Amino acid sequence: MSFKLNKKAINQIKKKIKELKGKKAEKCELTIEDFESLFDVDHEGATALHKSFDTDGNGTVEWKELLGGITVLSSDSVEQKAELLFSTWDLDGNMILDRSEVLQMLTSVITIAATLQLCDKVSELKKKFGQNFDTQNFEDRKSVRENLNIDKESLTEAVNSFFKQVDNDENGEISYEEFKIYCENDPNAVSAFEERIQQLTYKKKGGACSIM
């Protein structure tokens, strides 16, 4: 997936921030809670993404920081994306991903993917069966996400599989160099995060699930 950050996309993002905060994007200081709404992710995912965008470490993300992070994710540089995504999930900042950090990362990625799939399926069913189709708890992605039940055993298997693919020296930790190699070898490695940027500036017509 490739998302190009252009003037139209920037204006759309500004519009959504103004709807969320009630003032111009350039004057806003975005909190973790704002990121939850803006990117439609769970609290853990919003916290991690907010941390990596907050380059001055003051606890909020200003417009220039938001634009900088989105620019990296929308660029063609795999190395830049890998660096940003690694810092997003390196929660303690020690330049190493341990199993708990990878578990949180994969939980967020799987939640995003499952939410999108469920929303698309519900939209199809609603079109097929009409307005009488029961869409309770499926009217937007946030409610879908909150009602997901992700199997813990499957998550554990996903973490084990991730380490098998990425932890080349098998020391039980993932370094930045190992993560960068993984991203370079797998073009889909960052697609879930790019999806959030793309969804931020695009709304699917006729769907039951909104992006905000």
Folded structure, characterized:
- By secondary structure, the protein is mostly helical.
- It is 61% helix and 4% strand.
- It contains ten helices and four strands, in the order H-E-H-H-E-H-H-E-H-H-H-E-H-H.
- It has helices spanning 7-21, 32-39, 43-53, 63-73, 78-89, 99-129, 141-146, 152-166, 176-185, 191-200, and strands spanning 29-30, 61-62, 96-97, 174-175.
- The strands form two sheets. A two-stranded antiparallel sheet has the order 1-2. Strands 3-4 form a two-stranded antiparallel sheet.
- Helix 3 packs across helix 5 and helix 5 packs across helix 9.
- The longest helix has 31 residues, at 99-129.
- The chain starts with 6 loop residues before the first helix and ends in a 12-residue tail after the last helix.
- The model is unreliable at 201-212 (pLDDT under 50).
Round the Cα radius of gyration to an integer and report it: 18 Å
Helicity, as a percent range? 55-70%
Low-confidence stretches: 201-212
Q: How big a fraction of the residues is strand? A: under 5%
- Strand tally is 4
Global structural class: mainly alpha
Query: How far apart lie the N and C ends?
Result: 21 Å
Taking strands numbered 1, 2, ... along the chain, how are they ordered across the largest sheet?
1-2
**What shape does the CA trace take?**
globular
Write the element-wise H/E pattern from the N-terminal end onward: HEHHEHHEHHHEHH
Mean pLDDT: 75
Organism: Anaeramoeba flamelloides
Keywords: Calcium, Lipoprotein, Metal-binding, Myristate, Repeat
Domain EF-hand: 41-76, 77-112, 154-189
Pfam family, one: EF-hand_5
